Amino acid sequence: EDARAGAASGGGSAMAQPDEPHPPVVPSCPLPSKTCDVVPTERPRSCCGMAVAGLRTAKYHLPEWHRRNAGVCYEAYTAGEQAERGRAEAKHLVKHAAASAQRAQGYSKATLGQRLQDIHFWRVELQKEIMELDAETNLLAAQKLRLERALDATEVPYSVVIDNLECRERRQPPDLVIDEVEKQLMKEADLIRDIRDLLKRTIIQAATQIRSNRIQKENCELDWSDKVETYNIDDKCVGYCTDSTDVQYHPSSVKFEENASTPKSWAQFSHDNISRAEQEKLASVQLRSLINNIIHDASEDLRMQRAAVNEAFDSHCRELDDAKLRLESHLKQILKDIGDEEANIVNLKKAIRDKEAFLKVAHTRLYDRSFRPNVELCRDEPQFRLVSEVEELTVFLEALKRKLMESEQNLKNLEETRMKLEKEIAVKANSIFIDRQKCMGYRVRYPVDLEVASYQ
């Protein structure tokens, strides 16, 4: 029983082994008692008593003496035999206790060795998981930095689009229309705003995942540090032996702590930590892949929309150039028409002056002939001819004056058309300057590729 108590005290700090076989115990049994028959005394009893009291006081009969000696010898023999049996039992107990203690210590050492292997296994697994989770966290942090750089890179395109829209607001009313360029610019602005919102949400998601990774990494590190400390303790315990100088009694440690874990819960705890770390790592890998896709898709969308806007600008600028060329061609023709019309007016005025001179001559002739005296005032052929000439000249003068008025009105219309054409040409030139010089010139600062910019 002492050997079993010692074995129990030696394994109190380790996990209980309910199925461990106990060493056999030799029950102690008393030697068979040897009974001796004592012959009752047959000495005569004195009836007078006091007569021989002085001679018989403290004296025994010879049989009593023999019996006394036999009893003492028997007691000595019994005591010696019992002592010998005790020594044999003690020797056997010492031998059995030594073997049992050696066996118990060996079994405890073996279980400690197995425990060290288990601790080493989980320690290595935790260390591996910590390193992988730390590497994954660093990769995710790099992806988060890419998101932030990509978000910063969208500021220039957004400012370019807003500047283009503001510049095109300075177009003059005839060209201040919602054309295809305007629609594509508005679409580009909406796209950039959506991309910026998506990048911001993804940055927040990445920061949350990084925080989760670090929390789980800290949990694994705490578990790992406990495993390292426990491994050192158990490794130290494995090294203890009976020759160790730093062993001593610790009676208070021979017990099970109420908050002590079981081997199953102990292994499950590390398994759960590794499982949660794997889940966080998998979520981090998926988030990194999502970030790559987001940056790539955003870059492609911006590139395609930028190409669509540039194509719309080129097409619109070509339309403006064609319209400006047509207007300039019309203006050139109008200017020629104005010159011709001015020359025509000059010719008409000269013709009117010439015809007025002829009319004055005819009028003067008729006036002078009206002073012919008496019968000389005759309706002769010259008179009819002069009247006919005046009438004819009057008709031509009226026709020339009407034509002059028409020509002057035509010249006025031509001048108004010229002013309109010049204004339209100026409007087109202003629109071309805004679209080609201000807008397209400023769009040169547009980032080449958002995906490339995220690495810079």
UniProtKB/TrEMBL annotation:
Family matches, as InterPro entries: Tektin-like (IPR048256), Tektins (IPR000435)
Gene Ontology CC terms, in alphabetical order: axoneme; microtubule cytoskeleton; nucleus; sperm flagellum
The organism's place on the tree of life at top rank: Eukaryota
Alphabetic keyword roster: Cell projection, Cilium, Coiled coil, Cytoplasm, Flagellum
GO biological process: one example: cilium assembly
Compartments, record wording: Cytoplasm, Cytoskeleton, Cilium axoneme
Residue ranges the record marks as coiled coil: 390-431
Any Pfam family matching the protein: Tektin
Keyword hit for Transcription: no
Keyword Coiled coil: yes
Residue segments, region Disordered: 1-29
PANTHER family documented for this protein: TEKTIN, TEKTIN-4
Record-stated family: Belongs to the tektin family.
Protein name: Tektin
Organism: Pheucticus melanocephalus (Black-headed grosbeak)
